[in-house]
Design brief:
three-stranded antiparallel beta sheet; mainly alpha; single chain; 7 helices
Length: 117
């Protein structure tokens, strides 16, 4: 397999594009959660306790701007906002599942380690 290092234009590297879109502390977790189905902001916040509301909002806006997630706002009182993967976002599911599986298999959890022995 020939390696392409994009030395003439490093900004055109597909790996760099991917990391710029899905990289970050919370984006992979958000995407993994949304790969299971539509979720409301409050559900995401509740399931990612260490993330601040400001950071979650920022990460969701970036994913929406990149066309990875949909944001649907319902004109209700109080307002309800739901997030889901776009068609492009759905194409990330196998990658997210692979990352999850890798983490599971390489966990420092003594129970997991014993299972693989």
């Amino acid at each position: 397999m020939k390696k392409h290092w994009h030395t003439e234009n490093p900004a055109s590297c597909p790996m760099l594009l991917t990391i710029n879109i899905i990289g970050g502390k919370w984006k992979p977790i958000i995407l993994h959660m949304l790969s299971e189905g539509t979720m409301r902001f409050g559900e995401l916040k509740k399931n990612i306790p260490p993330v601040s509301q400001k950071m979650l909002t920022q990460q969701l806006r970036e994913l929406e701007a990149d066309g990875i997630i949909n944001r649907k706002l319902y004109p209700e009182v109080p307002p309800r906002t739901e997030y889901s993967l776009t068609e492009l976002g759905v194409t990330l599911k196998p990658i997210l599942q692979g990352l999850y599986k890798w983490g599971q298999e390489n966990s420092a959890d003594p129970i997991k380690t014993a299972e693989h022995a």
